[in-house]
Structure formats: C-alpha cells, structure tokens
Amino acid sequence: MILLLFLVGLVLLIVGAEALVRGAARIAVALGITPLVVGLTVVAFGTSAPELAVGVQSAYAGKPDLAIGNVIGSNIANILLILGLTAAIIPLTVQRQLIRIDVPIMIGASIVMAIMSIDGVINRFDGLLLVVALVGYVIFTIHQSRAAQNMQAGDDLGFDPVPPRSARTWLFNLGLCVVGLGLLVQGANWIVDGAVAFARLLGVDELIIGLTIIAVGTSLPEIATSVLASLRGQRDMAVGNAIGSNIFNIFSVLGVTALVAPAGVGVADAAIAFDLPVMLVVALACLPIFLRGGRIDRWEGVLFLVYYAAYTIYLILFATENTLLPLFSSAMIFFVVPLTVVTLVVLLLFEWRQRRLARA
Length: 360
Hints:
Elements: H1 2-30, H2 35-47, H3 49-60, H4 64-89, E1 92-93, H5 96-117, E2 121-122, H6 124-148, H7 153-157, H8 167-202, H9 206-218, H10 220-231, H11 235-260, E3 265-266, H12 269-291, E4 295-296, H13 298-319, H14 325-359
C-alpha cells in the first residue's frame, strides 16, 4: 500500500503539472501574452511544479529534510542524470547565451543557496530574497529573448498553445488549471506520506529519500522534455531545460517553500557537509564542459551518468552504514575525481590552443 500510494502520487504530480501548464499556456496566449513569454515563464515554472508541491507540503508537514533534499537532489539529477542520459543518446549543443548568462546564474544561485544554508535554516527573509531574484531572472530572460528574437513559439512550449475561442473552451482550459492544481496538491500529499512511510519502514533518513526517490520522481517532467527535445533535433532546448530548471528550483521552489513555511526550511548538517557541496561542484563542472567546443559529447554524458550512479551508491552505503563506505569514498576522492579534473583541464587547454591557432 505504501508503494502504491507513492506511485499514484507520482503519477498525479506529473499529470497535474502537464494539465496546469497546458491550460495556463492557452489562457495566457488568449490574453495577449506571446507564446515566447509563456514558454519562458509558465512552462518553465510548470516543469518545477512537482518539486514546488512536494517542497511546500513537506515543509507544512514538518519534514524539512524532504523539502531541502528534493531541491538538492533534483538539481544534481538535472545535470548528471538528465543531461548525462540525453547526451549519451545524442551529443548536445550549447548556445553561447547559455554559457555566458544562464550557467553563471545557476552557479551563482547555487552559491547563494549554500551561503543561506550555513546557519541550518533558510528562513522567510531568505525565501523572499530568492523569490525577488526569481522575478528579476524572469524579467531579464524575457528581455534578452525579445532582443534576440530567435526562438519559435512551438519550440518553446513543446505543444501547440491554441488559445480558447469560445466560452466552452475557456471553461475547459480553466478546468485544466483547477484539476491540474488539485492533482498536484493531492499527489504531493501522497508522495510525502509515502516517502515518510518508506523512511520509517527501511530505517533510512528522510533526507536520503528526498535526495533520491523523490528527486528523481519529481524530475520526470524534465527528463521527458529533455530527451524528447533532443530526439526532435532541439538539442539546445534540452540543455536549456535542465539549466533553467535548476535556477527555478532554487529561486522558485526553495524560495516559495521558505516563504510560506511557518519556520522556514531546515537544512540538515549532513546536507550542509556533503550534498550541498556536491550540488555546487556539479554546477561548477558545467562551465568547463560547456566551454569545451560548445557541446556535450557522448563520453561526457556517460561520465555524468557514472558520477550520478556513484553519488547514489554513496547515499545508499551511507544510509545503510555499509563497511564499504570508507573504501568507496577514498576511491572517489583520491582517484576518480582528480582523474576527471585533470582530463577536463587538459581538454580545456587543448581547446584554447586550437582556438588560438585558428585565430592566427
């Protein structure tokens, strides 16, 4: 019953987010908002709606570890799992604007989140700052996109946002929004209840559940969007979806959750000591990889997947207090990570040398 409750809640989250996005997008278009703006705001926010629903519900249920674990775990999964899986299928291209603007914003947002977490709680004032940053980011993104004028409506949304033309269609789209919101709320309730029951049944910390099962589950809309976009040839959209989702997770999900939660969002010592630094390193690792020729090759996608598998294995070993944990940690810290860093530095130097020769 616990597993069934969790799975049904996950399905309700995904279906609810899809219904809410479609209904809101069509209404927005009918009100004169351009499809481009809808794609950058409604749809971007919609893919983060599952994380937001789980975050708010977890905070109100007095389970802050689920809320913070969901945000951190989703951000790690968006890069290592989603981009890794997508690039392993088809090599991805990275737009110059993404490298110059959005990736640095994602890194900056991750650093701000880490700083806010040092005292063990992200309070309402922190949440307000994050929400203000979200508004600023959306306005800036819309301004930049309008100036560039290089995106098509259909590509932004992933579906045709046909505006309502009759009272019946208006009611249908309003109904989609209401039903979608209701499914999100109910799905979040069941997921949180199921996750807490899982944690108690398995004797696993709620933070671990939030970092793994819930994080991957609420990232399913991003996984589907990125993979489908890459298969359709919209590879830059696949990358942008993952990076944009990370920014929205911090500014929107964490910001709104901290703002509405009575006592803010507590951050466990384990998250401050390990998971937040991992999220920061993953965000920082994007920059040199993206700079290297403006693409993510298959081998880099496989590398991302290997690191995500290693991170998940570490969490499982840590949760079960397995005797192999020290050996596994030493192998990662003293061999795998340094080898990866050296490889990236060599590739960056090679790329820099090639560009200098091309200019000469």
